[in-house]
């Protein structure tokens, strides 16, 4: 992800989330946060998905992941998250965590497919409707994430 991607990312963010990040938040991540790693998925010169994380010591924390509405349900989210997992391993992570709305069953299903398991709840984590967040963790098996031949 580069600064020039941000307008397209903010458009996807607004389509995907009730509490979308602002352009400033992404600028800050790309320019001031040394722990941040963000990537985009591009098709025909257009951003169709993106995801990011913070890698700190041996842990990676996913901050956001989204696929443009028209491109969902084609395996792209799985591909993007697999790429994030591989990148996290490259940066030395052995575990990955994220928060997801308890109502977001589609995302939870994706996460379970890629090795995440529920590990607790943060009550009222989402400020727009006080919804609880499910905390999920995955062990990153470097052998598995590096040789995921499904997409090679
Ligand atoms: C969550 C999201 C990134 C998934 O991306 P995607 O490209 O649509 O997902 P994929 O096509 O790779 O599907 C991956 C898995 O997710 C689940 N899934 C995807 N779409 C689904 C649907 N409509 N119904 C049920 N499960 C679904 C399935 O388990 C699927 O695996 P399978 O196809 O092998 O059964 C996408 O729906 C999105 O951008 N949602 C809005 C933003 C969001 O909620 N982000 C997560 C915040 S924590």
From TrEMBL:
SUPFAM superfamilies given in the database record: Acyl-CoA N-acyltransferases (Nat)
Record's keyword terms, sorted: Acyltransferase, Cytoplasm, Ribonucleoprotein, Ribosomal protein, Transferase
Catalytic reactions on record: N-terminal L-alanyl-[ribosomal protein bS18] + acetyl-CoA = N-terminal N(alpha)-acetyl-L-alanyl-[ribosomal protein bS18] + CoA + H(+)
Highest taxon above the source species: Bacteria
Predominant localisation class: cytoplasm
N-acetyltransferase domain mapped to chain residues: 1-141
GO CC, alphabetical: ribosome
Keyword Lipid biosynthesis: no
The keyword Secreted is assigned to this record: no
Entries under Gene3D superfamilies matching the protein: 3.40.630.30
Catalytic class of the enzyme: transferase
Subcellular location: Cytoplasm
Enzyme Commission designation: 2.3.1.266
One Pfam family this sequence matches: Acetyltransf_1
InterPro entries: AcTrfase_RimI/Ard1, Acyl_CoA_acyltransferase, GNAT_dom, YpeA/RimI_acetyltransf
A molecular-function term among this protein's GO annotations: protein-N-terminal-alanine acetyltransferase activity
Family the entry assigns: Belongs to the acetyltransferase family. RimI subfamily.
Function noted in UniProt: Acetylates the N-terminal alanine of ribosomal protein bS18.
Protein name: [Ribosomal protein bS18]-alanine N-acetyltransferase
Originating organism: Paenibacillus spongiae
């Amino acid at each position: 992800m580069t600064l020039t991607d941000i307008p397209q990312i903010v458009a996807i963010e607004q389509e995907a989330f009730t509490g979308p990040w602002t352009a400033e938040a992404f600028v800050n991540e790309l320019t001031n946060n040394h722990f941040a790693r963000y990537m985009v998925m591009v098709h025909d010169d257009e951003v169709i998905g993106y995801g990011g994380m913070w890698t700190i010591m041996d842990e990676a924390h996913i901050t956001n992941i989204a696929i443009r509405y028209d491109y969902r349900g084609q395996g792209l989210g799985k591909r993007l998250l697999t790429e994030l997992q591989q990148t996290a391993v490259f940066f030395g992570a052995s575990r990955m965590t994220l928060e997801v709305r308890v109502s977001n069953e589609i995302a939870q299903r994706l996460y379970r497919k890629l090795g995440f398991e529920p590990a607790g709840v943060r009550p009222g984590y989402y400020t727009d409707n006080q919804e609880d967040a499910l905390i999920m963790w995955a062990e990153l098996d470097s052998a598995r994430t590096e040789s995921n031949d499904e997409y090679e």
